């Protein structure tokens, strides 16, 4: 931690207490976060913390983003809220890294200023984590690409003004198509043939809108191509490390918040004439919850630190470690949020109770950004634990 990060944490926590916490239950029931919140967060310098100043960001790095997220969770932000508010964190990095001034001016700067909302569309029906097998095609026709296909489980897809979309520009579509023919293309809202087919209801992340998108002969300017044609897989893989670390922070962030709420509840709640915390079994549960949170937080922070060094040319890549950090934190969230509801008893099962929300939100984390099973197999290959 540094003095600057301490100040960032204080700003982020105060933002949640003032602008988020009083309204979060209503946003959960409404199924979305208001667009005005993006502008408010931008004015506080929160949206672009880890983006370079040259593209409209605050000039920080991944460690600054981790500090910000931790503080927001500690103050009561939900995982769904963070997914909705910071979708730019997955929609913009490829554009910012491309060095294309036109893409930066049209999409990155307005989004970091809170004026527009971006989404990232990779997952397809039946495709899941198989990025190399995607079926959405983009065929070059003069100065445009003609896009056809379907995307699903797209975070902020309902509200998005543009979608950074993974498309196949080479090789056969579907399983076995390979990674070499994938590109990234920015598809803007209002493009003829591009529609939001439906908003998807979910177990958790209620205030984070999720959509199924379709493309039927949607014509997209070649100027909206991100980086070189057929380089999309490598761009996606590079940013997956940051996304998985961010999801790990989500996991131990809501776990830490659930632990704090539960410890306070166990001190205040009396049964059989004494507080819950007077029972040894309860104290031991709280200690185990604490242990898992601390292990996940410490390991994830270390992986984030090593990733920052790698981006500066000072260390090895941490693709495998990011997978393991995500799994460690997700396991902690699953355990801690389960015990939090259990120790709250009937109150923990009521809709609108904060631990109930975290319990539901935790379930998506081992799935999103790469399912645990897929990432474990990836880590096994990277670590050399294969035949």
UniProtKB/TrEMBL annotation:
Acyl-CoA oxidase/dehydrogenase middle domain residues: 119-217
Assigned GO CC terms: cytoplasm
Record-annotated Acyl-CoA dehydrogenase/oxidase C-terminal domain positions: 230-381
Gene Ontology biological process terms, A to Z: fatty acid beta-oxidation using acyl-CoA dehydrogenase
InterPro entries the record matches: Acyl-CoA_dehydrogenase (IPR050741), Acyl-CoA_DH_CS (IPR006089), Acyl-CoA_Oxase/DH_mid-dom (IPR006091), Acyl-CoA_Oxase/DH_mid-dom_sf (IPR046373), AcylCo_DH-like_C (IPR036250), AcylCo_DH/oxidase_C (IPR009075), AcylCoA_DH/ox_N (IPR013786), AcylCoA_DH/ox_N_sf (IPR037069)
Membrane-crossing segments per the record: none
Cofactor needs: FAD
Ranges where the Acyl-CoA dehydrogenase/oxidase N-terminal domain occurs: 2-114
Keyword Lipid metabolism: no
Keyword field: FAD, Flavoprotein, Oxidoreductase
Protein family per UniProt: Belongs to the acyl-CoA dehydrogenase family.
Protein name, entry field: Acyl-CoA dehydrogenase
Organism, scientific name: Nocardioides panaciterrulae
Organism lineage string: Bacteria, Bacillati, Actinomycetota, Actinomycetes, Propionibacteriales
